[in-house]
Amino acid sequence: MKYYLIVGEASGDLHASNLMKAIKAVDQEAEFRFFGGDLMSAVGGERVKHYRDTAFMGFVPVLLHLRSIFSNMRMCKKDVIAWNPDVLILVDYPGFNLSIAEYIHKNTDIPVYYYISPKIWAWKEYRIKNIKRDVDELFSILPFEIEFFEKKHDYRINYVGNPCVDAVDSFRKNAPEGRDSFIKRNNIPDKPIVALLAGSRKQEITANLPMMIEAMKEYPGYQPVIAGAPGIDRDFYKPYLGEGACIVFGETYNILNNAHAALVTSGTATLETGIFRVPQVVCYATPMARLYSWLKKHFLKVKFVSLVNLIAGKEVVRELVAADMCLENVKTEIGKLLPAASKERAAMLDEYDRMLEILGEAGASERAADKIVALLKEKGV
Predict the structure, then answer these.
(1) In the chain, % of residues over pLDDT 90
(2) Confidence band of 380 (pLDDT split at 50, 70, 90)
């Protein structure tokens, strides 16, 4: 069968690539065409456009690139119809993907499946109308979404488990190198590592990384290691590298596997850090921080921004967002987690274990692939 996938960021590239591998295991004649990244290209098929050419975050960047965004949307819609896949699989990235879903549903008979459902429970809940109308099957990776979609909105979904568990489990099974080898190969000083995961987009990195690095100067006995974002040149990071921090590209899991603690920009990375059982502080600076904090208080539907806290249903990791994201707070919160015997560190590790029980076992990609192929066969594809 023919599968067309659309991804808009690095985490989607990772999870879509694992889904593609799992689909190939149950459909040996699977053909892929996609908007995606390098990991998807490594699985096979034809990449139409790289996600870094389509992803823009924040009001101003989106406004400045409207012409490019609309051009990409038009091209994507035409390309899907021209290739005429057996199914269109959308992966997160709702601003772009829900527009594609509406067009394809209205103009074709191509089934529209959504893997990693839009987080409308946090923001823009009105989008449930579009999902009910335009999406044939929704595949959820967060357990609390079952109640939101099925009980609150009477929309049946398929919970398949979380692919981050799969990705970390696969990494560990492949016998990752030890700490001594890792730091020697990357020329990292022999100190306990604090991972700096400042986001996958330039705007996020510019907003968060300088404060992360500045905060770590308070703790010279620890070595900050930046996880270089895919698709962003080393030159972009140069202004930050003369201040004691190292950078490693393409090895985020290796960094986390060898990290003592972490400063993490909110997103999938917070969950991955939790699965690796690395104590963390969530750091998310925003423009107009006070306005954002007011909007969060009055309009966001959830208490937390990090997936760890949302899954646990309580504050497990400290979130420094918008007005709370300041140098003194970062210093204070990471300082609580650095001592090996600190009560804050021990409590966080215990809560990580509880979160992993809630998520369930590895195998989300395989369960999603089995269900996708089975549903298509039921429809006579």
Answers:
(1) 76
(2) confident
Residues 72 and 21 in one domain: yes
Answer whether residue 310 shows pLDDT above 80.
yes
- What are φ and ψ of residue 14, in 5° steps? -60, -50
Tokens 């609390």 — which residue?
144
pLDDT band at 200 (very low <50, low <70, confident <90, very high): confident
pLDDT recorded at residue 56 = 53
Instruction: Assess whether 83 and 213 both reside in one domain.
Output: no
- Token readout for 166 is 């799969």
- Answer whether residue 166 is part of any domain: no
Q: Range of 341's domain?
A: 178-359
The mean pLDDT value for 70-86 works out to: 94
Confidence at 301, pLDDT banded by 50, 70, 90: low
Quote the CA–CA distance of 293 and 52 in Å, as a whole number. Answer: 28
78-95 b/e with 16+ CB inside 10 Å = b? eebeeeebbbbbbbbbbb
**Residue from 94, 91, 104, 133 nearest 5 by CA:** 91
Burial classification of residue 16, based on how many CB atoms lie within 10 Å of its CB (0-12 exposed, 13-18 middle, 19 or more buried):
buried
Are residues 283 and 303 located together in one domain of the fold? yes
Work out the burial of residue 144: count CB atoms within 10 Å of its CB; fewer than 13 is exposed, 13-18 middle, 19 or more buried.
middle
CB 18 within 8 A of CB 27: no
Cβ atoms of 274 and 308 within 8 Å: the answer is yes
**Six token digits for residue 58:** 């924040």
Residue-wise pLDDT tens digits, 362-373: 999 999 999 999
Here the CATH number for the domain that contains residue 89 is 3.40.50.2000
Q: Please state, as a whole number, how many other Cβ atoms lie within 10 Å of the Cβ of residue 288.
A: 12
306 part of a folded domain: yes
Task: Put the strands of the sheet holding 87-91 in their side by side order.
Answer: 46-50, 31-36, 2-6, 87-91, 112-115, 137-140, 158-159
Distance separating alpha carbons of residues 150 and 147, to the nearest angstrom: 5
Asked if the model's pLDDT at residue 63 lies above 80, the reply is: no
- 231 in the same domain as 150: no
